[in-house]
Design goal:
Helix 5 packs across helix 6. This protein is mainly alpha-helical. The chain has a domain of about 100 residues. It is globular.
Length: about 160
């Protein structure tokens, strides 16, 4: 099982200054490398896992890919917590950088001020980030016995 991209080294080493200096194309490349680290940013179809996809951008320049195997259209954010996003990729990278670099967490009000978002958008974004990280850690045991063994209880016969 691969590591969640929010817990990966490239996501953790992303600084806010780096994000704000990026062009839109650089932000897209960075997001793709964090999204698909196994292929160094080359698109992977989220439906069939196909590696043979080609670029078919929309008329407004929005990045889109089409899988040659299953003919599905997808974007960098398809199948992630940022799917059907409304903000530019740079804003999401900035939110990730802010979220991961805070020691005790980030308040939605502070994030809304930092990124010029509404409070509701910042609140939802932070909850999506927290939920994604919690999903990655669900079911893991820190030390001790396996979860099905309760000390002091006899096994059923």
């Amino acid at each position: 099982m691969s590591q969640h991209f929010l817990l990966s080294c490239p996501a953790k080493s992303l600084s806010l200054a780096q994000v704000f200096r990026m062009s839109d194309a650089e932000a897209e490349t960075t997001f793709a490398k964090v999204r698909w680290p196994q292929t160094d940013g080359a698109p992977v179809c989220h439906r069939c896992g196909g590696l043979n996809a080609y670029d078919c951008r929309r008329s407004n320049g929005a990045p889109r890919f089409r899988c040659r195997a299953c003919k599905a259209d997808f974007s960098i954010t398809s199948g992630t917590l940022f799917a059907s996003h409304k903000l530019p990729l740079k804003a999401y990278l900035a939110a990730i950088a802010i979220f991961l670099n805070e020691v005790k967490g980030k308040a939605a009000l502070a994030l809304s001020r930092d990124l010029s978002l509404s409070y509701k958008a910042a609140f939802v974004l932070l909850h999506k980030l927290r939920e994604a990280m919690a999903e990655e850690m669900r079911g893991r045991v820190i030390g001790g016995e396996a979860p099905n063994h309760v000390p002091g209880r006899l096994a059923a016969r």
